[in-house]
């Protein structure tokens, strides 16, 4: 049995490493493709898809992957450094998201169009508001004295769980954006399906990372 379990363990680790490498490539490749497609600067609207792709595909993905023991780009650094980089990336993601939301809102105002009347618009607004609250909640980890009744382990668990929910909301917003008229006219055929797979892949990798961290914490308590 031991001889059988070991190859499976190695295979599992190899698959996780391959999925992690793909997640890093997708996290950068997707906003790069959006930049080529949107041609930022060609119009006011062109900045919206780029900023949102940067926020939820690149910055937020890398901010979460930084804590992965296998695929983090900062594996050799201390946890203190990882936490600081995580915070910096999350703040940049939030700034991009807020700017992207402000630009699309102002663009709709200029063109006399309704605000938040589509699923993409409503989900995007909810995601940005949630991300703002998530960043505010992260302050409780930096300054544990603000909530003395909660243990540090419990705060970390809640922050990771709520962060996963926020990330999935961001991925859902990106996918709904790819169903918009602008995107479906610009991207067709197999390219559209490949684009839809990008947030699906990164969300699966992040969910696996969070679930493994939760299981590890449960085992360490017994």
Automatic annotation (TrEMBL):
Question: In Gene Ontology terms, what is one molecular function of this protein?
Answer: transmembrane monodehydroascorbate reductase activity
Which InterPro entries does the record cross-reference, listed alphabetically?
CYB561D1/2, Cyt_b561/ferric_Rdtase_TM
What keywords is this UniProt entry annotated with? Electron transport, Heme, Iron, Membrane, Metal-binding, Transmembrane, Transmembrane helix, Transport
Can you name the source organism?
A: Thinocorus orbignyianus
Q: Which residues form the Cytochrome b561 domain?
A: 12-217
Please give the name of this protein: ascorbate ferrireductase (transmembrane)
What SMART domains is this protein classified in?
Answer: B561
Establish whether keyword Iron is in the entry: yes
């Amino acid at each position: 049995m031991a001889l059988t379990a070991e190859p499976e363990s190695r295979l599992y680790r190899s698959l996780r490493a391959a999925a992690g490498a793909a997640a890093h490539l997708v996290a950068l490749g997707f906003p790069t493709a959006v930049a080529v497609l949107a041609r930022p600067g060609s119009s006011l609207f062109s900045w919206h898809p780029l900023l949102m792709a940067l926020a939820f595909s690149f910055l937020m993905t890398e901010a979460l992957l930084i804590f992965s023991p296998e695929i983090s780009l900062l594996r050799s650094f201390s946890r203190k450094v990882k936490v600081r980089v995580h915070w910096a990336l999350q703040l940049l993601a939030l700034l991009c998201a807020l700017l992207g939301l402000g630009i699309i809102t102002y663009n709709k105002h200029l063109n006399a169009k309704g605000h938040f009347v589509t699923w993409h618009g409503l989900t995007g607004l909810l995601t940005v508001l949630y991300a703002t609250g998530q960043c505010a909640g992260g302050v409780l980890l930096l300054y544990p004295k603000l909530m003395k009744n909660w243990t540090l382990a419990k705060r970390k668990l809640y922050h990771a769980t709520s962060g996963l929910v926020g990330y999935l909301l961001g991925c859902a917003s990106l996918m709904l954006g790819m169903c918009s008229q602008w995107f479906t006219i610009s991207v067709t055929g197999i390219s559209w399906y490949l684009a839809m797979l990008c947030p699906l892949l990164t969300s699966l990798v992040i969910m696996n990372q969070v679930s493994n961290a939760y299981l590890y914490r449960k085992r360490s308590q017994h």
